[in-house]
Amino acid sequence: MKVLIFDTAEAAAQRCAAHLLDRVRENPCAVLGLATGGTMLPVYDRVATTYLAERVSFSQVTTFNLDEYVGLASKHVCSYHSYMRVALFDRIDIDLGKTHIPKGDAVDLAAEARAYEQQITASGGIDLQLLGIGQNGHIGFNEPTSSLASRTRVIVLTEETRHANRIYFTKHADTPRRAITMGIGTILAAKACLVLGTGEGKSDAIAAMIEGPLSARCPASALQMHPAVTVIVDRAAAAGLKLGDDYQRVHPNGA
Ligand code: F6R
Q1: Which pick of 52, 114, 189, 233 has the fewest CB atoms within 10 Å?
Q2: How far is the CA of 134 from the centre of ligand 1 (A)?
Q3: For residue 201, which atom of ligand 1 is closest to its CA?
Q4: What are the tens digits of pLDDT across the range 128-165?
Q5: All domains of the chain, ordered by start, with CATH?
Q6: 0.85 exceeded by the pTM?
Q7: 3-class DSSP assignment, residue 31
Q8: 205 in ligand 1 pocket by Cβ < 6 Å?
Q9: DSSP β-ladder status, 128-131 and 193-197
Q10: Got the DSSP string for 152-211?
Q11: Which residues are tagged catalytic?
């Protein structure tokens, strides 16, 4: 893994946005895997402002989001469909017909999951998968003990994850109990992965992902098996790394 450590969360998010934009400049038809969550908001903000300033066109880009809550219609204000529209899609020239997010309100969720995998395959596969990380080490909504070979499916969220996402809902009881998520096998099939982790709350998960044993206890540790992973962290999220000094020697100031 290539581990880049930045002084601040803002600098880390900027670097993450720059990485994503560079892939689109290199390949205007890129297939991007996208993530949601608080960590990604400054990234998408930076992407949108760069789009305006430099007109990096997304018109031919295809996207696949990692996940969606089960039971929420696309139009629900807390759905990841709404999140993506507000945070990014409505701010750039992307063709909404080329964006994909699992339908959390599909009548047949198993069929929706199978169709999602087929759509990814038909697109030629994901060129770059953007990932946040949960405090429990989840990527997508692959909670601890998810199979490291799992594909898109419905998963029951842990109470820890429900509590972390509670801030987006009026009350805990409204926080969804299930999600439809790309599997770890789906994520590992991407040609490259870009993980962003910021804040002290992520430090244990980041350390387990990079330096811990390969284990379903920390689903993100499966990324150790992937040949092209870049991890971008701020100092707070890097605090648990035993070999942090080494990573900084190899890539001083995120270079
Ligand atoms: C979101 C996703 C999750 C989040 C993770 C971190 O699509 O798949 O894995 O990336 O829960 O969320 P935040 O950034 O809110 O801490």
Answers
A1: 52
A2: 6
A3: 16
A4: 999 999 999 999 999 999 999 999 999 999 999 999 99
A5: 2-254 (3.40.50.1360)
A6: yes
A7: strand
A8: no
A9: parallel
A10: SEEEEPPHHHHHHHGGGSSSGGGS-SEEEE--HHHHHTSS-EEEEE-SGGGHHHHHHHHH
A11: 67, 136, 138, 143
